[in-house]
Amino acid sequence: MSKALSLDLRQRVVAAVRDEGLSHRAAAARFNVSSASVSRWRTLERQSGDVRPGPLGGDRRSAAIEAHAGLILRMFEARRDMSIEELRAELASHGLRFGYGTLWRFFARHRLTRKKRRRAPPSRTVRMC
User: Residue 23 half-sphere exposure, CB side, CA atoms within 13 Å?
Assistant: First the structure.
């Protein structure tokens, strides 16, 4: 898993470029970081006034499908035996395109099972109350 470089290092690199007039490549060589990182940090400083790293990891993509959760759940409840591929086709008719895995993870997050299970016959050895 990747980890952001320290805030102290970022501040020293950006200060070397800003205050000492070093080029991005020269600052990168001095502090042993990539020149692309120096460019990103300078851009970040110009845009937000700070060089703090943003959040790492976590789910960044499920918001796209969660925005349509109501529609998906209504379709699912209307026909619970629908396969994921049939649901994808139904959603496509509404102008929504989601991958098979995206829908699978959606149902897992909402704790909805897509398995079709047969009812087991009652046990002959256990007394039913």
Answer: 3
pLDDT tens string 3-14 = 889 999 999 999
- Chain segment 54-89, per-residue pLDDT in tens: 888 877 788 899 999 999 999 998 988 888 999 999
DSSP secondary structure letter of residue 111? T
For residues 51 and 40, give the distance between their C-alpha atoms in angstroms, rounded to a whole number. 9
State the greatest distance between any 2 C-alpha atoms of the chain, in Å, as a whole number: 86
Measured in residues, the chain has a length of 129
Vertex 19, ends 14 and 23: CA angle to 5°? 65
Distance CA 70, CA 115 (A): 21
Q: What CA–CA distance (Å, rounded) separates 126 from 129?
A: 10
pTM, 2 dp = 0.52
The type of residue at 63 is: A
